[in-house]
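May I ask you to comment on the folded chain given beneath this request?
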Amino acid sequence: MIQETRLAHLYTRAFELNSPTVEELAVGLESSTTTVYEDVKHLVEIGLLERVTETQPHRYQASRVDLAVQADGEMFHITPTLLVALAARESNENINLYLDRHGVSGLATAIEYARAYTQATMNARIMAREQEIPVLETETIFQELQEIILDAEPDIPTSLDLDELDAAVDDRLDE
C-alpha cells in the first residue's frame, strides 16, 4: 500500500467520497474499471476498505487505520492522513520531493509535527532543529500537510479559525 501509489490514491478517494461504489471510485482514474475492482477487492482483503452494503452496487468505506511500523530502525504510524499524503505525491511536488529526501518514515514524522503545528503547539524551527533539516523545508512541508490534516482529521482541535483568517486576508486585499 505504501509502495503502490495507485492503492493509496484509491483509499484516499474512498475516504473523501464517503461510501462510494466502485464505479464512483473509478471516475477520473487512469486505471481501468477492472483494475479498480481488483484493487478494491485487495483493499477489502487487507482491511483498508470495508463493504458497507449487501446489495449491488456495493458501497465501500475507508477503514480508520493506525498501524505501527518499524523501518530502518524507526517506528512510525500508518494513518489515513499518511495514506492521503502519499496519494497526494503524484500531484504535489513538495510532498514528492520531501518523500524522495526523507522517505515514508520521514513523511510520517513530519505529519506528527505538522499535526502539532496545526494545533498551534509546534513551530517549524523546532522540527527543523530536531530532525536536522532546513527551516524553509520544514515550513514548506507544514503548509502542504496542514491542508491534508484538516481534511483527513476534521475533528482535530485547532486554535486557528481558518475561515476567519481567510476573511481577514480577503478584507486586506480589498483595501
